[in-house]
Amino acid sequence: MSDSKKAENDPVATNQDGSAGDAGAAYAGPAGQAPAAEPDPYLVLENFRHENVELKDKVLRTLAEMENLRRRAEREAADAKIYGVTSFARDMLTVADNLRRAAESAPPGAPEQEGAAMKTLIEGIELTERDFLSRLGKYGIKKLEPLGGKFDPNLHEALFEVPDEKAPNGTVVQVMEDGYTIGDRVLRPAKVGVSRGGPKPGS
Prior knowledge:
By secondary structure, the protein is of the alpha+beta class. The protein has a domain at 142-203: Roll (Nucleotide Exchange Factor Grpe, Chain A, domain 2), CATH 2.30.22.10. The chain contains five helices and six strands. It has helices spanning 3-9, 41-83, 86-105, 110-114, 116-137, and strands at 141-143, 156-163, 172-177, 180-182, 185-188, 190-196. The longest helix is centred in the first third of the chain and has 43 residues, at 41-83. It is elongated and about 120 Å long.
């Protein structure tokens, strides 16, 4: 084949206007599309800083929530340990009441009149009562001692008033039923009689 024939068969790169171009020229991409611009390093850095602040805030919030949960769990565990026996303890107060009634049921002077046997029985009941209250104390249960003190509606339940010119007004002068606390809560308020008619407290 002659050189003229071969030249006619070989494809020749042409430009869009029909002019011949370099066959080995690099492809410039679709017509009218400019090369991608490089990102601004300052904006990239600012974006990283902003994301860092957000992540730090999320971490701090998560840590605070975890600390609150830990404290709440510890508080609930402590409350369960102290107050978990509340219902059982309230039922046991009946035993303490009965022991006190038994000790007070003997008329004055009965131990001496009835002899050593009666005296031993009364002492045994009182000893049992003290031991029972001591065991309740191991579970945070304490007996209130309101007699002679100022009436406190948070701890006492007033059943009646007692006219008394000597005791300051609002003083507990009689205890009809003992009261108890468990931890810092009232297990059972003391049922009391309160003085009326005396001088005001502190006067």
